[in-house]
Amino acid sequence: xxxxxxxxxxxxxRGKRRAQQQDEGxxxxxxxxxxxxxxxxxxxxxxxxxxxxxxRIVVLIAIGLMASLAWKAYxxxxxxxRAATESAHTAAxxxxxxxxxxxxSTAWSSAHSATHDSPSAAAQVSKSDSAPSSKTGTAxxxxxxxxxxxAVEDLARRGDPGAAEAVLDALHDEDWRxxxxxxxxxxxxxxxxxxxxxxxxxxxxxxxEVRFLALAGIAARIDPAIPQIGAMEPAAAEAIGxxxxxxxxxxxxxxxxxxxxxxxAKNPTTSxxxxxxxxx
Length: 280
Known about the structure:
Layout (H helix, E strand, L loop, with lengths): L10 H84 L9 H13 L21 H21 L4 H8 L5 H13 L6 H10 L3 H13 L13 H11 L5 H17 L1 H12 L1
Helix pairs in contact: 2-7, 2-9, 3-4, 3-5, 4-5, 5-7, 6-7, 7-9, 8-9, 9-10
C-alpha cells in the first residue's frame, strides 16, 4: 500500500502554507503594535506623573516664599509697636526719674503749660501758635510745607532706613516750620540722626521750637530705652543743658533743666558731690 505524500511543489500546498505564514506574521505584527501602544501609554502616564510631581514642588516652593514674605512684613509691622511697648515697660520698671520727659510736640505743650502756670512767667507763645501776618501766598506756602514734610514724617514713622538722611536734609530748610516738624518726627520715632545735628540745632537754630525739640532728642539719649539710638556722653549732655539754661526762650530753658534733672537722677552720687562743692 502506497501512502500519500505532500509534494513541496504542489501549488495547493504552497498556497496554504503562504496563507498560514501571512496569518502568523499578522498575529506577530498585531502583538508588536499592542506592545508599542502599552509602552506609549506607560511612558505617557510616567510623564504625567513627573509633571504633576514637578508642579507640586513648584507650588510648595511658591507657598513657602509667600509665607516667608508675609512673615517678614508682619514682623516689620510689629517691630515699632513692640519697641514702643518695651519702652513703656522699661519706663515702668526703672521709674519716671530715669526716663526723659515727654518728647516732641507733646513735650512742647507740657513745657508751655509748666512755664506759664506761674503768674511771673512771661507770656511767650510758640511761633506755630501765632497767626500769619498776611494771607498772601499762605495757601501756596502751606501746600509746599505739607509736600516737604509729609514724606519725611512717613519715612520716620515707618522706620525707613532712609529716614535719617531725609531728616538731615529737611533740617536745612529755610522754613522753621519744616525744621520743627521733621525734628519732632525724628525725636518721636527715635530716628538715628547724628548727635552733632541735635547739638547744632539745640544751640543755634533760630526757632525756639526747633531748639526745644533738639534738646528733647538729647534728653532721650541720656539713657535711651531702645537700641536704635546710642547713648550720649553725660558730660556732653550736661554742657549743652547748662548752656541752654541761658536761652531766651523759657520753654527751652525748661527742657534744659529736664536734661540736668535726668542726669542727676542717673548719677545721684555725682549730683551730691557737685551740690557739696557749690556749698563750699
